[in-house]
Amino acid sequence: MPKQVLIINVTRMGDLIQTGPLLSRLRAEWPDVAIDLVVDRSFAPTASLLTGLRQVISCDFARLLDDCRTQSKSLVALMQEMTAWAAPLSAAQYDRIVNLTFTRQTGLLASYIGAPDLRGITAGPDGGPIVQNPWLSYFTDLHRHRRFNRFNLVDLYAMGGSGPGSFSPLSVTVPDDGRDWADSFLRSQAQSVRHWIAVQVGASDVMKAWRPEYFGRTMAHLSRYLGVGFVLIGTAAEMESIELAKAAYRAGGGVAPILDASGRTTLHQLVGLLSRCRLLLTNDTGPMHLAVGVGTSVIDLSVGHVDHNETGPYGPGHWVVQPDLACSPCGFDQICAHHACKDRLIPEEVANLCLHALGLAPCPSLGPGLRLYQSSVDADGLGSFILRAGGVDADSAWYAGFWRRFWYEDFTGKQSLLAENFESAPDREPALAWMRAAAQPLRRLEQQARHIVELIGRHPLPVSILQRAQAQLRQEREELLPRMMACSATGPATVAMIRDIHNDDVTGLTLLADRHVKAYRRWNQRVARVQELLSAAPAPIKRGQRSLPMVSNAA
Q1: 3-class DSSP state for residue 126?
Q2: Among 233, 223, 214, which Cα is nearest to 193's?
Q3: Are 65 and 78 in contact (CB under 8 A)?
Q4: Are the CB atoms for 282 and 300 separated by under 8 Å?
Q5: Exposed end of the chain (fewer CB within 10 Å): N or C?
Q6: Where are the beta strands (DSSP E) in 324-456?
Q7: Residues ≥6 apart with Cβ < 8 Å to 82
Q8: How far is residue 313 CA from its own chain's centroid?
Q9: What's the rounded Cα separation, in Å, for the pair 264 and 182?
Q10: Whole-angstrom Cα distance, residue 454 to residue 512?
């Protein structure tokens, strides 16, 4: 009987498009697999653009959440409605459920449907959310060490939902009606344009949107080149920003044809338009991933709380411009008073990069305060970005490569094919000194956890002694955590330990205590492995030979 997999992804357009390589990886794992996808009703049309699905199952989750918040229906009525909807899914007896929506509600849904192999957010014994699978646990917590992360969301989905494998690009079906509409729309508006550039001025969050007037100035600069034309895309809600961009375009002397398709296209028509454009200039948006999926090159303006390493254009052929600021990218919950990152991106320089992407000019040399990345695929078959201009501080650069390789090998049990680093960590000596000092406290925590297991096994249960032992362990752990988190060599492993401790998916004191022993043991082992790697003497570098980066981004 063919394997059956259910994927739950009810968030955004971009997240759905980014599941494409997971579908390919599942088909490589089980060639006859039947894959079903649960989505919010509003995203069912987007899901239909993906290939390799048996069926798309939709539900009006937004309405259900509104009913919960407003209490327009009783909890009993809502539970009955949801249970009736999910009953056929439970009866399907899936072999694996991959929940890529990290909410408590979808965790309860995944656990209710049930499968021998549950991945992503599920419900623990008390109904609280827990995360199954190390790759998806990593994704849940990567905001705690963002500056070291070099895994794209696409790869986290694919590795977590299936496993390692060969590179698979994003792929979106271009419907015939959408392609035909786009051809007619472009042909009827301008006959002389050879290079259509799509421009997405707006974004779902103003924090991650470049200033509209800068888009206008960029387009005005590009308009001086023969054969260039622009297609503005976006939603009706972005009209104000689009009008500002058009005004700046006119003020900047823009002369090329400019077509405004914003708020006027169906999803099929939007996909058709993107497939007919040579380039998309955009903020981090859902249409960016659609463009990647249809093979259109992207220039991603990575500002605000956006980190291209997480959600940038996947696979080769794209460019990312990122401001070089200590606060960039900012935290998701941060309120910015200045948005200075947006002013670091100079319209004329962005325009020159567009020309290069079109094959009309050499790669520009950007001014100070910017980083330029070219998208690629690394030796492990994962999406990556090569720094082409600007710089990254030595600590971030070294440890980003180190942890990229470390987690790949830790989670897969396979050796990474990335080139090893021939340079020592910038903070090698103080980091090693700290790990030597922390070794004994770390061992003591594991010993205390083992002692708690022994106490739980006694009859009668020594309640007061057990409570004191637990309190002592917590106190010593909390005293150690701040320094472990602050050190680049131990912080990410400490984040993983905290997730292990809170993933209480077992019942009973004995099983829970055993789980904690394993968490402390993994923490010890990982820190010891980091210490071993940092202690290894760097290979000698021949005179005149440059040291290699920790991560070789070339395929």
Answers
A1: coil
A2: 223
A3: no
A4: yes
A5: N
A6: 370-377, 383-389
A7: 64, 109
A8: 11
A9: 12
A10: 13
Element containing residue 199 per DSSP (H, E): strand 195-200
Q: Tokens at residue 544, please?
A: 């005149």
Measured between its terminal Cα atoms, the distance across the chain in Å is: 37
Query: pLDDT tens across 357-408, in order?
Result: 999 999 988 888 899 999 999 999 999 999 999 988 999 999 999 999 999 9
| Dist CA 425 CA 65 (whole Å) | 48
- For 453-479, the DSSP string reads HHHHTSSS--HHHHHHHHHHHHHHHHH
Sheet holding 319-323, edge to edge: 258-260, 228-233, 195-200, 279-282, 297-301, 319-323, 370-377, 383-389
Supply 334's token pair: 């941060």
Q: Which two tokens stand for residue 5?
A: 């997999």
Report the distance separating Cα 378 and Cα 29, nearest Å: 21
Question: Whose structure tokens read 């990567």?
Answer: 142
Q: Tell me how far CA of residue 420 lies from CA of 356, 415, 416, 425, 546, in angstroms.
A: 32, 11, 9, 13, 14
230's tokens: 């622009």
Q: Hey, what are 380's tokens?
A: 């492990």
Alpha carbon 538 to its chain centroid, in Å, reads 32
Identity of residue 370: L
Q: Which domains does the chain have, with CATH numbers?
A: 4-161 (3.40.50.2000), 176-391 (3.40.50.2000), 428-535 (1.20.120)
Q: Which segments of 55-133 does DSSP mark as H helices, in order?
A: 61-70, 75-91, 104-113
Distance CA 523, CA 495 (A): 10
User: 234's torsion region: left (phi>0), alpha (psi -120 to 50) or beta?
Assistant: left
Dist. CA 201–CA 288, nearest whole Å: 12
Sign of the CA dihedral 421, 424, 430, 435?
positive
Q: What is the pLDDT of residue 329?
A: 77
Q: How many whole angstroms separate alpha carbon 250 and alpha carbon 252?
A: 5
Task: Match 């977590």 to its residue by tokens.
Answer: 160
User: SS3 sequence, 247-305?
Assistant: HHHHHCCCCCCEEECCCCCCHHHHHHHHHHCCEEEECCCHHHHHHHHCCCEEEEECCCC
- Residue bearing tokens 């220039």: 299
Q: What is the pLDDT of residues 428-454, one digit of tens each?
A: 999 999 999 999 999 999 999 999 999
Tokens 């010993």, residue located: 447
- Cα distances from 169 to residues 155, 281, 381, 482, in angstroms, run 10, 20, 10, 40
Per residue in 254-290, pLDDT (tens digit) is 999 999 999 999 999 999 999 999 999 999 999 999 9
pTM tops 0.85? yes
